[in-house]
Structure to design on (312 residues):
């Protein structure tokens, strides 16, 4: 990954190597932080634009509210900071990572009523999340032995830093077993999501995706649903089991990092049948192409025009 040499840290741009924190930083010990994953795309007309910036920044603010704290900057201030960081690093296309965390203060479980809070914004160039082969040929996945936590165990609507230990364990399990990614079930045994992406399946022309019971409300997920429905496809937000997934015609993942990534194999079973067995299916291939066209300003449907904020 090519990292942007400049970062935004508590109100100003500084070289990344100067953005240092204390070893007494509370979030380093207990994981109480929140973050976002956002992408900027180079545009057909020139320059760059951030994909669904306002929706991401609202979720960023809400994640910190769920953690029990108030964001020290307004959404407008953070959006301006994102533009400044992208321009300072001369990035039209990049991955953007806002992060809010509790700084150096009391080191008990309770950080206090008014702890020091810091916000930073990092940028880097992130190629295909599951590799170029995953994007073009499909990823190999397995159902993990790790389960998504119960909704009252971790607050699933917040993108909270410490929650991702669950994803780290599941991701490492997948890689150590020789596949690209893990899928996790919820506490009742139904499919939930991957370690950092939402899950879709296609069966008989109907697209299904897991409901928002125990998963984060993915912004790319909502975009995909909108795109598919605009093309006349039926999209159902319903629970499904692993054996139903094994028999799907197509399976794909969606997320800011993953974008639209096909799945070609689940638990050693090839996805699909006939000429598409173990290959990228037609619905997924068409969706990949259209998503990229919308994100890069090559196609501007009514909803797509609202999804792009030029870097200014």
């Amino acid at each position: 990954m090519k990292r942007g040499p400049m970062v935004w840290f508590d109100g100003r741009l500084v070289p990344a190597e100067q953005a240092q924190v204390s070893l007494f930083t509370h979030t380093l010990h207990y994981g109480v932080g929140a973050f976002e994953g956002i992408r900027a795309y180079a545009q057909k007309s020139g320059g760059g634009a951030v994909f669904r910036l306002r929706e991401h920044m609202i979720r960023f603010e809400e994640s910190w509210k769920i953690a029990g704290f108030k964001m020290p900057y307004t959404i407008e201030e953070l959006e301006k900071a994102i533009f400044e960081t992208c321009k300072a690093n001369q990035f039209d296309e990049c991955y953007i990572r806002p992060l809010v965390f509790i700084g150096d203060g009391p080191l008990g479980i309770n950080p206090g009523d008014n702890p020091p809070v810091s916000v930073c914004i990092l940028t880097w160039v992130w190629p295909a999340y599951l590799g170029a082969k995953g994007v073009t040929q499909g990823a190999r996945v397995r159902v993990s032995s790790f389960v998504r936590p119960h909704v009252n165990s971790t607050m699933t609507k917040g993108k909270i830093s410490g929650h991702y230990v669950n994803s780290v364990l599941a991701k490492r399990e997948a890689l150590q077993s020789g596949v690209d990614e893990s899928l996790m079930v919820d506490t009742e045994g139904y499919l939930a999501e991957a370690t950092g992406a939402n899950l879709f399946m296609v069966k008989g022309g109907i697209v299904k995706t897991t409901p928002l019971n125990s998963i984060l409300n993915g912004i790319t997920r909502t975009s995909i649903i909108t795109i598919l429905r605009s093309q006349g496809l039926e999209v159902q937000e319903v629970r499904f089991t692993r054996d139903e997934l094994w028999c799907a015609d197509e399976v794909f993942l969606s997320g800011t990092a993953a974008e639209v990534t096909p799945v070609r194999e689940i638990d050693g079973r090839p996805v699909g049948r006939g000429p598409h067995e173990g290959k990228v299916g037609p619905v997924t291939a068409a969706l990949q192409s259209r998503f990229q066209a919308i994100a890069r300003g090559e196609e501007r449907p009514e909803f797509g025009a609202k999804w792009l904020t030029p870097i200014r």
Notes: The longest strand covers residues 94-102.
